């Protein structure tokens, strides 16, 4: 069952030298209980596309067109007040940096109870029970005692578990996890991803996982959108993408991982374009080993190639 659908999303920013487009005709959907990974290098538009779902874009951003359909309604038409009932309650965000996402002045329990009271309408003993249960679900030991702790007493991984517990306590249907393990060390990364996998399976939660790490994607995603320069350049199931990658950028990203495994790190030459660069043709063409003349003139559209969707002139 489709729970979220992003349709023809175009977003830009009003900068000092005028309007600059950042997101070009982005389309993706999310099924119940599915993990969609959005991958790409920094600045490729992953976070801007997904923060628009929660109306959490900076004031300089402008959504030019598109629809974000959640349970049959377009979230882009929602007022700030309507969005307050969606944010945290129905669609929760796990941000990149757990260190700054909890208030250092309040205990973990206070912060959990505030969310539960606001979104679930529970108070007193009932709210405390829900909070403790949520902490237990994310495997925080001595959950009852830990309710009294302050964030500085928790490690980064434990703080990230508390954020996930907040989403669980409110019965969120969708979790947007924005590089949820970037600030954590490798063993803690694995534990957090394991918890996300477990809650997805147990509670049928849908997850949008934003990451630049294809290793994490391989273990967690059902479907993948590869983004470059604000466009989706390949959209495929995990099997399709890893067994038969089609877009030269996807192949280049996968080669980086393979070379790391054999101890020889090979990077993709060059840099992604910035929002202020004027791009002609395919935005990947200055870095693409398969570049043809048409690539310097015409931006390819996303279209079906086998079971995948690909934006590349190689498949014209
Ligand atoms: Fe490379 Fe051309 Fe495909 Fe762009 S359209 S990825 S430049 S082959």
Give an account of the 3D structure.
The chain has 316 residues and is an alpha/beta fold. It has helices spanning 46-51, 80-86, 108-120, 124-137, 143-146, 156-169, 186-203, 214-220, 238-243, 248-261, and strands at residues 2-15, 18-31, 35-39, 61-70, 73-74, 91-94, 174-178, 206-211, 223-228, 231-237, 303-305, 308-310. It is built from ten helices and twelve strands. The chain has an eight-stranded mixed beta sheet with strand order 6-7-8-3-9-10-12-11. β7, α7 and β8 form a beta-alpha-beta unit. 41% of the residues are buried.
Helix amount, in percent? 25-40%
Cα separation of the termini: 32 Å
User: Beta fraction of the residues?
Assistant: 25-35%
Q: What gyration radius follows from the Cα positions, in whole Å?
A: 20 Å
Number of strands: 12
Instruction: Give the SSE string.
Output: EEEHEEHEHHHHEHEHEEHHEE
Instruction: Compute the number of helices.
Output: 10
The secondary structure category is alpha/beta
Strand order of the largest sheet: 6-7-8-3-9-10-12-11
Instruction: Give the low-confidence spans.
Output: none
List ligands, each type once: iron/sulfur cluster
Largest sheet: 8 strands, mixed
Describe the global form.
Answer: globular
What value does the average pLDDT take? 91
């Amino acid at each position: 069952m489709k729970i979220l659908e992003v349709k023809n999303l175009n977003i830009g920013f009003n900068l000092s030298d005028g309007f600059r487009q950042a997101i070009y005709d982005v389309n993706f959907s999310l099924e119940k209980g599915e993990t969609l990974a959005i991958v790409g290098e920094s600045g490729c538009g992953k976070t801007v596309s997904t923060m628009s779902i929660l109306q959490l874009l900076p004031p300089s951003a402008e959504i030019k067109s598109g629809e974000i359909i959640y349970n049959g309604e377009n979230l882009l038409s929602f007022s700030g007040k309507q969005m307050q009932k969606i944010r945290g309650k129905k669609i929760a965000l796990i941000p990149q940096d757990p260190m700054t996402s909890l208030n250092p002045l309040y205990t973990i329990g206070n912060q959990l109870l505030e969310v539960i009271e606001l979104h679930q309408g529970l108070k007193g003993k009932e709210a405390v029970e829900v909070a403790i249960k949520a902490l237990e679900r994310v495997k925080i030991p001595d959950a009852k005692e830990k309710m009294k702790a302050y964030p500085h007493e928790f490690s980064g991984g434990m703080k990230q578990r508390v954020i996930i517990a907040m989403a669980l306590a409110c019965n969120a249907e969708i979790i947007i996890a924005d590089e949820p393990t970037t600030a954590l060390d490798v063993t803690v990364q694995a534990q957090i991803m394991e918890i996300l996998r477990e809650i997805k399976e147990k509670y049928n939660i849908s997850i949008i996982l934003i990451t630049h790490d294809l290793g994490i994607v391989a273990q967690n995603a059902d479907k993948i959108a590869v983004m470059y320069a604000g466009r989706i350049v390949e959209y495929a199931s995990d099997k399709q993408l890893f067994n038969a990658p089609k877009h030269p950028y996807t192949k280049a990203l996968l080669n980086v991982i393979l070379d790391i495994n054999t101890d020889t790190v090979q990077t993709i030459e060059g840099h992604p374009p910035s929002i202020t660069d004027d791009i002609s043709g395919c935005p990947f063409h200055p870095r693409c080993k398969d570049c043809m003349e048409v690539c310097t003139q015409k931006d390819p559209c996303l279209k079906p190639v086998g079971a995948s969707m690909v934006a590349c002139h190689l498949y014209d």
